[in-house]
């Protein structure tokens, strides 16, 4: 064998061995390191209960009523497949006890007019937005970005959603049609605002996520 | 390992500090030294990759031919960086993993790590690990010092220091100060050794 081929084979074997060792190390780490599950804190549990009223009145320990719906790594994979840098699901929780058992809460982050808008969208076990309080605004940097306070007849986001009749089955993809209607409605009344889309996209994300979780 | 070489390698992280003396690893130092936890976390993560890669490269130096040595370095460093990323994702998801973001995978191409791999490939395992450890500690000290000063001074009202421009200015000032102090120390040490006749 010529020195060239001898050297080439030696190099390939050495690189192969180093790569194999690295792959083994990564496989070991991946298999044995625990998968992170987003923690549910008391503040979030209180918000989820405010939306769903699943716990009996006066109940102080609300943490036991909700559980994370998906592990962080799975959520990351889901966002890669279904989200985008401007639309993603940050966390998802399920009500496991009480009157609203099975309700899915999807915390989303969508790009708004000034900055990202963080919302929690509640979908009941049958795929409908919760009737009374389907959306909780977790973080919206500029309060005046949402035009509800300025225009008569629209009211709060929850009132707005109920007016726009979005309590249709999300499983049937009807929410997309409603988004267009609702968006056009708002644009007609208030002028175009990206935050309107941020809300609509958040609901779409919640619908897609519900389909994934509900199977 | 003779005493002089041991001392030089062990204190290499101070006297040849990667950030303040060699001026490498500036990008993560500026970007992620706006507060102490992020700065310290990135420092420890980089030090871990440095030590593990140094050990691995030194152990395999006779097996890997010169022509593919660089390729092997990158595979090894990238593998340890991924281990760090998996670890942070498992245990520090809401804190360090989220706040460091892209700077975790960027450890794989950090000059602080790459610069020491050549040393690891040319020296015995003990030296390689000692050098990597020393440089890692030096990097942790430098980035944490930057993080502490930027956080404290920002809290005191100097908000400009939280920006990249402020970070660069502070880094320049600290580099000047550290090099001045090191030069003073070396001068006094040389003078003392001359006096004792040990130079």
Write a concise synopsis of the structure shown:
The complex is a heterodimer of chains A (215) and B (199). Chain A has 215 residues and is of the alpha+beta class.
Instruction: Name the structural class of chain B.
Output: mainly alpha
Overall morphology of chain B: flat
Instruction: Give Rg of chain B in angstroms.
Output: 18 Å
Helical region count of chain B?
A: 9
Calculate the mean pLDDT score of chain A and round it. 74
End-to-end gap of chain A: 59 Å
Strand content of chain A: 15-25%
Compute the CA-based radius of gyration of chain A.
Answer: 23 Å
Largest sheet of chain B: none
- Would you identify the regions of chain B where 5 or more consecutive residues have pLDDT less than 50? none
Strand content of chain B: under 5%
Q: List the secondary-structure elements of chain A in sequence, H or E.
A: HHEHEEEEHHH
Assembly type of the shown chains?
heterodimer
How many beta-strand segments of chain A? Answer: 5
Biggest sheet, spatial arrangement of strands of chain A: 1-2-3-4-5
- The helix fraction of chain B, in percent, is over 70%
Can you describe what's shown?
Chain A is of the alpha+beta class and 215 residues long. Chain A contains six helices and five strands, in the order ααβαββββααα. Chain A has a five-stranded antiparallel beta sheet. In chain A, strand 3 (104-111) and strand 4 form a beta hairpin. Chain B is mainly α. In chain B, helix 4 (36-59) runs parallel beside helix 7 (111-122), helix 4 (36-59) runs antiparallel to helix 8 (125-155) and helix 7 (111-122) runs antiparallel to helix 8. The radius of gyration of chain B is 18 Å and the shape is flat. The model of chain B has no long low-confidence stretch (mean pLDDT 89). The chains are: A alpha+beta (215), B mainly alpha (199).
């Amino acid at each position: 064998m010529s020195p060239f081929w001898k050297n080439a084979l030696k190099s390939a074997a050495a690189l192969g061995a180093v790569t194999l060792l690295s792959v083994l190390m990564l496989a070991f780490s991946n298999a044995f390191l625990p998968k992170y599950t987003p923690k549910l804190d008391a503040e979030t549990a209180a918000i989820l209960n405010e939306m769903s009223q699943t716990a009996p009145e006066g109940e102080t320990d609300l943490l036991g009523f909700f559980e994370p719906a998906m592990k962080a790594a799975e959520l990351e994979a889901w966002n890669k497949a279904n989200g985008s840098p401007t639309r993603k699901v940050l966390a998802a929780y399920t009500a496991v006890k009480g009157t609203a058992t099975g309700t899915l809460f999807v915390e989303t982050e969508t790009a708004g007019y000034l900055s990202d808008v963080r919302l929690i969208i509640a979908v009941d076990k049958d795929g409908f937005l919760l009737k009374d309080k389907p959306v909780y605004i977790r973080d919206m940097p500029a309060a005046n970005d949402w035009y509800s306070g300025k225009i008569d007849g629209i009211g709060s986001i929850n009132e707005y959603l109920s007016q726009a009749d979005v309590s249709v089955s999300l499983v049937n993809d009807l929410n997309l049609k409603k988004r267009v209607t609702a968006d056009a409605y708002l644009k007609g009344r208030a002028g175009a605002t990206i935050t309107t889309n941020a809300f609509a996209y958040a609901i779409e994300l919640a619908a897609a996520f519900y389909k994934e979780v509900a199977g | 390992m003779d005493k002089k070489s041991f001392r030089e390698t062990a204190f290499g992280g101070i006297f040849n500090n990667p950030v303040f003396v060699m001026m490498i690893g500036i990008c993560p130092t500026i970007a992620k030294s706006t507060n102490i936890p992020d700065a310290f976390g990135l420092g420890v993560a980089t030090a871990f990759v440095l030590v593990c890669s140094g050990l691995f490269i030194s152990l395999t130096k006779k097996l890997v031919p010169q022509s593919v040595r660089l390729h092997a370095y990158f595979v090894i460093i990238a593998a340890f960086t991924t281990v760090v990323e998996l670890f942070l994702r498992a245990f520090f998801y809401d804190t360090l993993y989220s706040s460091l973001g892209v700077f975790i995978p960027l450890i794989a191409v950090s000059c602080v790590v790459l610069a020491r791999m050549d040393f690891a490939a040319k020296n015995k395992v003990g030296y390689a690990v000692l050098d990597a450890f020393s440089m890692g500690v030096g990097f942790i000290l430098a980035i944490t010092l930057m993080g502490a000063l930027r956080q404290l001074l920002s809290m005191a009202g100097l908000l400009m220091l939280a920006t990249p421009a402020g970070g660069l200015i502070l880094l320049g000032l600290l580099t000047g100060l550290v090099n001045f102090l090191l030069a003073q120390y070396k001068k006094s040490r040389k003078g003392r050794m001359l006096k004792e006749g040990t130079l």
